[in-house]
Specification:
Blueprint (H helix, E strand, L loop, with lengths): L2 H6 L13 H26 L5 H12 L10 H31 L4 H25 L6 H22 L1 H9 L19
Length: about 190
């Protein structure tokens, strides 16, 4: 198929998972991202010798406005923060899943999907940086970067595997060939 012919015919790739709920799938995608981040920070806290310190401190900061005095764990703060953590990830997962469903229907939106994944990564990394600096937790920047990267990759891989039409569209139409460039006027001769 020639490049010009490709521009006029935008296929809709069959998606075996298209008949399911975007909300349900998005919640699953978001929970996966939330679990990855939670496990990452559990590992960081365990290596520092204070398991659950991060959700404890963030829970206190979220619900009381200050970090806890001493090192005692507050199960209420940990549970409350965990609920907020997973709600936020579920909302992110729903947004990404909705965009994937739109992209499978119209391949011209693939760049938007790529940008959404990059924005999700940057958002997660920014939140991690902001919160760790707010609570005075001095983790190396790599811990926040690692958590953000792993969560974004986990969510992206799950969506990629559940929607094979994305891979087929990239095979048939490399990124950048899904839309036709506008015709440019002929260059005027210079005097």
């Amino acid at each position: 198929m020639t490049s010009a012919a490709r521009h006029h015919h935008q296929p809709r790739y069959a998606d075996p998972s298209a008949d399911h709920s975007i909300i349900a799938e998005g919640i699953g995608v978001g929970v996966l991202g939330g679990v990855v981040v939670a496990l990452w920070y559990l590992l960081a806290d365990a290596l520092a010798g204070v398991p659950l310190r991060t959700p404890n401190v963030l829970g206190h900061l979220l619900f009381t406005g200050h970090t806890p005095a001493g090192g005692a764990l507050d199960i209420g703060a940990i549970a409350g923060y965990t609920v907020i953590h997973f709600i936020a990830f579920a909302l992110l997962g729903i947004a990404l899943t909705g965009l994937v469903h739109l992209t499978v229907r119209d391949i011209r939106l693939r760049m938007g999907l790529w940008l959404a994944l990059v924005c999700a990564f940057l958002f997660l990394n920014g939140i991690a940086y902001m919160l760790t600096s707010q609570i005075g937790q001095r983790l190396a920047w790599g811990w926040g970067l690692g958590a953000s990267l792993l969560a974004t990759l986990a969510m992206g891989v799950l969506l990629w595997r559940r929607h094979p039409g994305l891979g087929h569209s990239l095979r048939d139409y490399p990124l950048g060939e899904e839309v036709r460039s506008p015709d440019h006027p002929a260059e005027r001769p210079r005097p």
